[in-house]
Every structure is written in structure tokens, then in C-alpha cells.
Amino acid sequence: MPTVLAGVSRLDPERIRHVASPLVELGCALHVLAEPVHHDRVEWASATPLPADLRAELAQWTWTVRAVRARFFATSTATGIPTWSDELTALRSRPPEDVAAELVRPLRGRPLSSNTTDNGAVLHWARSRGRSVAALVDSLLTAPADPVRRFLDLLDACWHQWFSDLWESTRDTLAARGRQDRDRAIRDGVAKLLCSLDGSIDVRDPDSVVIQKVQSKRIDISTRSVLLVPSNYIAPHLFIGEIPGEPITLIYAATGRTAPVPTAQQIRARLEALSSPDRLQVCRAVASEPRTAGEVAALWGLHPTQVTRHLRALTRAGLVTAERQGRFVAYRLDNTALTTLGTDLLTLILR
User: Fold this and answer.
1) What is the C-alpha separation between 222 and 255, in angstroms, rounded?
2) Which of 32, 79, 200, 329 gets the most CB atoms within 10 Å of its CB?
3) Backbone angles phi, psi at 97, to 5 degrees
4) Terminal Cα distance for the chain, rounded
5) pTM to 2 decimals?
């Protein structure tokens, strides 16, 4: 189920570049504003100094900064620290039809494997987001000049009324992190660089790394270029952008490698171990104190052999610990493992 980046040992570090992009970072921040709960930034979002009319306008465009994002929020042609003026001017100079096509990409109008826009699919998924979004998307498809201008004006208003101060205080740190990461690739190798970016990334073999995401995918980066984009607003996600004709883009937390992310196999094993009603009874029996299989069987009226099987399965899944007491083996529920099961599952899903 994980994502594999192959060809790591064959990727020339000179094809790795980094950028501290105000446009990409604004897109990440707008995503947090739209979904502050799973970013654990509810207070931050509430305290963000945006006028009510600007918040209302942003609410109509939140679908552009979700898991699938408009292209210009997901990659950059720049290196180093481009200015907001340069990035916005570049967007304004493009034909509105092109910008509109990138805006509707999150509505399945532009799959990663295609450069065409399926207007029917776009309108279908736009309707699922309400009438106002459907009307907005319809105008993007039929007469894009005005809605594109409105959207770019909205981004500029966010910049001047709120985001520019945040950017000024963090851009140098983000740029420094990007330089350090690129230097690490040259000094220590691409695999070590990638593993340093996030707790979900680990070496799989000498030529590949594995990323713990609920997405079965293999990406050969040996002949591609890679763009590193550190961000203060991407966590808990690790964004992997694979757009035809563009570098493989990694938007990652600027704070560095996090705690390891459990694999889907490990979490599935724990969930499967708890799927039997009898095993839940066994868990309850060993939750408050250590007990042997025979004692649990007597307590709950179960067959001793069956209880032993359940306890072994729970032990293999890491939910129960076993300790030998003379000729007896006492089992006890690992409360921490059970408590973190939901957190681990959510961490994997959100990655």
C-alpha cells in the first residue's frame, strides 16, 4: 500500500533544487485555514486577521487547496526565494483559460495522467460542493477571464492583509532549510536526504525508499528532477506532486523528520487482531491485571486452546505483552498500543 520512490541511487543530486515559494506556502496556509482541526491549528486559524468578506470569498475557493491542489500551489519553476510580485505577475500574464484549467484540477478535470480537462466531470463534482461553487466553476469553464481575475485579486488581498508579514518572518528560514537539504543530498546521498525529510520515509533497498502513505504507487525518479519545498503549514501531510512535465515535488514540514509513521500492514494487523468479539473479551480480561490463558478461559467460559490462540494473535499484533512467571505465562493489555491505534491510523491516512 505504500508509495515507493525508485531510482534513488541513480538520481544525480545536481537535479535536485529547492525553493521557498510564497505562492506555494500561501496555498498551504489556505489549506490550514480551510481544515484547521487535523492540523491542530484551530486557534491559529481563528486568530488569523482576515476581514469577514475576505473569509467569505475564500470559502468559495477552498476546493483549490485540498488534497489535490491547483498546479501553481503544488510546484514552482523558481529556485531560491522568488518574490510574491514575480509569482503573481507570472500568473496574471498567463491566458485565463490555462489558469482556469489548473484551478479546476482538484475537481478531477485534469488527472495527473492527462493534460485535458473533462468539463462534464468538473461540473459534476462541483455540484457536490453546493450551488455557489457549481456556478463559480461553470464560469471558469465558459468565461474564465473574470473569475480568474477575481481569484488572483483574492490571493493578492490575502497577501497584503495577512500573509506578507508571516512570509517575511519565515522565508529566510525556509530557504536555509531547502539549501541544507540539497547540500545533504550532495554530501550524504539522495536516500539519506529523503529519509531526513519526514518520519514516513525509510530506506527500502539500495535503490529505493518507501513512504508510508495510503497510496500504492511506484515513482521512478532516476531520470526526473526533484523540487524540495519546505513549509511551515504542510504538517501533518507530506505532499508528493507528480505532474507531467514537472519535477517530482516534495512539500514537507520545515521542522524536520517527525516520529516514525506506522506502516499500513502494522495498523491493519492490529485492527484485524481486534476484529473478533472473543478477542475483545480477552482484551478486557487482561486489561486491569496480568492473567494466564487458563484463568481467562475460566473467567469468560471459553476454551483454553481458543484463548491461547487469541492471546498469541494479540501479542503478535503488539496489543498484548507476555511475561513468564515460573511455569505460567501471564498476559497483559498494552494500554499505550491500544490508545495510539487511532492516532497511528489517522497519522497514516493524513500523510
Assistant:
1) 27
2) 200
3) -65, -40
4) 13
5) 0.89
